[in-house]
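Query structure, 323 tokens:
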């Protein structure tokens, strides 16, 4: 038996309960992983609250790193004792150990600690697919990125700097603005006291930006559209403030805007492509161009408090649970 977070009904953080669960031997194509760090992502809140439905009772979490304890028949992707991470697969990462399909595991290279890797699986790979696939950046662009001091945001700040991209980042406080700038964000907009559209137009000499990466959603939708150049792209990669519904006539009126709502699952497969994404990310980390460590750590038993901190916007960068 191992300890794991389970929930039997949707709701607030209080529905998360620490329980004993059985973890058997891995079957064909499966691996048992002993977790060292478990990432907390905003998508976990969506599952907990029922925005993304799950059959209940269920576990929570899709993103963790650890060591392979056992492999089932036919597994060739990894071996016992190997350090691995993952970001896709069934919910249930909030646990001391679990069985996983072997083909979703990403081997961790020497030189990258598990604590660092815990911030890179979902968050680092998100930055990769946003900047390198959804709307590919090449250097020289000026972009708008919402929630620049978040877990993905701080990696995005550094990736933009490494590529020669001028990043304008929105943040909620002056403290978060300082953190974002320290990580490579060229310009910050403190939304509590600054007008997003006015500042973007000022920074860009009235031109606007070719792309906005918006993980906030409902609260920033109109500002995002108004910051774009004609034929610009709105990448709606999250809805932390609520879902967005956009009339296509509005997109036309705002300048023939292209809008996409990407999902990681459609960019990370097949496995060979996922490994190549990870290779590019790890290369930046090993070269020192991206430095990423958890900013907040909670015991596995305190997962509910981690969710309260995340939803209360009391966090910067990445948050992890320690089994």
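Result returned for the query:
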């Amino acid at each position: 038996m191992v300890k794991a977070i389970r929930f039997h009904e949707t709701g607030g953080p209080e529905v998360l309960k620490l329980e004993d669960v059985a973890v058997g031997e891995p079957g064909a194509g499966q691996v048992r992983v002993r977790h060292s760090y478990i990432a907390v992502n905003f998508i976990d809140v969506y599952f907990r609250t029922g925005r993304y439905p799950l059959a209940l009772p269920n576990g929570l979490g899709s993103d963790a790193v650890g060591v392979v304890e056992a492999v089932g028949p036919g597994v060739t992707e990894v071996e016992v004792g190997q350090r691995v991470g993952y970001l896709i697969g069934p919910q249930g990462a909030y646990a001391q150990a679990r069985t996983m399909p072997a083909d979703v595991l990403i081997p961790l290279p020497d030189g990258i600690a598990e604590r660092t890797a815990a911030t890179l699986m979902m968050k680092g790979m998100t930055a990769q697919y946003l900047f390198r696939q959804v709307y590919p950046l090449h250097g020289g662009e000026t972009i708008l990125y919402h929630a620049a001091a978040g877990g993905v945001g701080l990696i995005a700040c550094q990736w933009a700097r490494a590529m020669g991209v001028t990043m304008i980042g929105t943040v909620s406080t002056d403290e978060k603005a300082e953190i974002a700038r320290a990580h490579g964000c060229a310009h910050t907009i403190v939304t509590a006291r600054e007008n997003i559209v006015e500042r973007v137009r000022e920074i860009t000499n009235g031109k606007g930006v070719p792309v906005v990466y918006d993980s906030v959603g409902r609260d920033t939708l109109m500002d995002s559209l108004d910051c774009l150049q004609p034929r610009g792209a709105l990448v709606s990669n999250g809805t932390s403030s609520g879902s967005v519904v956009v009339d296509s006539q509005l997109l036309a009126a705002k300048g023939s805007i292209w809008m996409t709502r990407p999902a990681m699952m459609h960019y990370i497969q097949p496995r060979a492509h996922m490994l190549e994404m990870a290779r590019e990310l790890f290369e930046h980390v090993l070269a020192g161009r991206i430095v990423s460590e958890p900013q907040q750590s909670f015991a596995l038993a305190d997962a509910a408090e981690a969710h309260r901190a995340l939803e209360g916007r009391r966090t910067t960068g990445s948050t992890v649970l320690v089994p």
